[in-house]
Amino acid sequence: MGIVLVGHGSIGRHFKNVILEKYHEYDFYIIDNKDSVLEDLRKNGIECFKNVDEFKKENKKITYGIVANWGPDHISTANQLIDIGCKRLIIEKPLSNRKDELQNLKKRSLKENIFITIHHHYSYTNIVEKIRQAEDEFNLGDPKGIRIIGGACCLSTIGTHFFDLSYDLLKSKPKYITAELELDYINPRDKNLLNIGGMACYKMENKTFINVSFSNENSEAYRVEIVYRNSLLKLGSDDKLRLFKRNIDDVKKFNDKITRYGELNFECDINYESISTVNHVMDNLINQNEPIVDIEKAEISALMVIGAIDSHIKGKRIDYDKIEDNGLLIS
Predict the structure, then answer these.
(1) Residue 2 binned pLDDT confidence (cut-offs 50, 70, 90)
(2) Is the dihedral angle over the CA atoms 195, 143, 293, 80 positive or is it negative?
């Protein structure tokens, strides 16, 4: 059995290192379209190819594939790997730029029984479990909504991970999307790729919310705020998760009514597994029966990005179930 890695960029290098360290019993191949990358890989004894068509000619037997190349090519690359016999895949985010091709891959994977897991970071940690424990221990109740804030951030590149986490915490898909975006072509990987700033609001089916505010005009580190009736969980770019609560005397003073009075005070850190998750997603691919982030779950985060672009271009609130493609390239 063999493993093929498509894309030897920043995340691809992490996958390569894990495979060489932990899965050296498998035949291993790398596909990348840069001649300089291929030259360096060959110097290190790795068998590599410039594209899937070139790889196909060698009739290599592969079972496992990792799609970590240019974002707009993820779906087409996954289909090419399935065509040549790959039955188990990791796909890096973004899963897709387009709703139609995403849904076609979902149908194909179900029909042909293809294992596909998507590398959404927080799903491969225990952060949701630890948040649920904190909700019980500190009597937080259910989260009312989530705010995602930052500068020099992208709604797709960074936002996708937070959308996946938000879906797990709020236990709901969006119903409506309203967005006013800043669409900038400043991505250092390729000038055709969008960097998406601006504002996006998601009203969820269970009446919770997700509000996003990203700006490419400042360097503010991102933070995620999980909002409860009388508390706040704050996740920072340092990966620290901190709990803030209203003073219980203030809560009692106003008979637990919703009020603007009463400060949120730091309560404690909530410790969770904050590590590189490449090891975990590889273990999921090689050793586990079910994908941790299947294509149906990953579709939600992808459509939240595509839907925000659709709302921005149309200049109006849109229904999540009626999102339309606009053909813009995201990473």
Answers:
(1) very high
(2) negative
Cα 22 to Cα 27, 274, 279, 283, 296, distances in angstroms? 12, 21, 9, 10, 29
316 burial via Cβ count (<10 Å: 0-12, 13-18, 19+): exposed
Beta strands in 10-108 (DSSP E): 27-31, 47-49, 64-67, 88-92
Alpha helix locations (H) across 201-265? 248-253
71, 77 Cβ separation under 8 angstroms: no
Which domains can be identified in the chain, with CATH numbers?
A: 2-122+278-294 (3.40.50.720), 124-269 (3.30.360.10)
Can you give 116-142 as a three-state secondary structure string?
Answer: EEEECHHHHCCHHHHHHHHHHHCCCCC
For the stretch 243-262, pLDDT in tens is: 999 988 877 777 777 777 77
Q: Which own/partner pairs from 162-165 qualify as long-range (CB within 8 Å, at least 24 positions apart)?
A: 162/122, 162/224, 163/210, 163/300, 163/301, 163/304, 163/305, 164/120, 164/122, 164/123, 164/293, 164/297, 164/298, 164/300, 164/301, 165/120, 165/122, 165/123, 165/127, 165/128, 165/224
Model confidence pLDDT, tens digit, residues 78-118: 999 999 999 999 999 999 999 999 999 999 999 999 999 99
Q: How confident is the model at residue 295 (pLDDT cuts 50, 70, 90)?
A: very high
pTM: 0.94
pLDDT tens digit sequence for 5-53: 999 999 999 999 999 999 999 999 999 999 999 999 999 999 999 999 9
Burial 86-96, CB ≥16 within 10 A → b, else e: bebbbbbbbbb
